[in-house]
Amino acid sequence: MSKEDNTVRKTIGFNIDDPDESADLKHAMKRKNFSRYVKQLIHLDRVQGREGLISARVSITEAPSVQTSHNEEKSQKEVINKSFGSFL
């Protein structure tokens, strides 16, 4: 019996017209061993518990909208500068 006889193969498709999927494909193709990379992602997702790493697909092309007043923004900048000013 050869090693190939006990191997299950699954294919994966990427829609290159979808910006997220196209970017995912480009990222994944940087890996020398695509199969091992996917197996590691699946393993991490499985062992992270019931929810796993991926509980829902999130679009990374949509920026969150955050609205703050000018005073809030100024206050936040002051806190950051006081906290990290010596490191910047």
Outline the structure in words.
This protein starts with 18 loop residues before the first helix and ends with a helix. The chain has helices at 19-28, 34-47, 70-84. The chain has a domain at 1-55. It is an all-alpha fold and 88 residues long. The protein is built from three helices and no strands. The mean pLDDT is 76. The chain is elongated. The longest helix is centred in the last third of the chain and has 15 residues, at 70-84. Helices cover 44% and strands 0% of the residues.
How much is the radius of gyration in Å? 22 Å
Tell me about the biggest sheet?
none
Portion in helices: 40-55%
Structural class: mainly alpha
Alpha-carbon distance between the termini? 62 Å
Can you give the mean pLDDT?
A: 76
Write a concise keyword list for the protein shown above.
mainly alpha, 44% helix, elongated
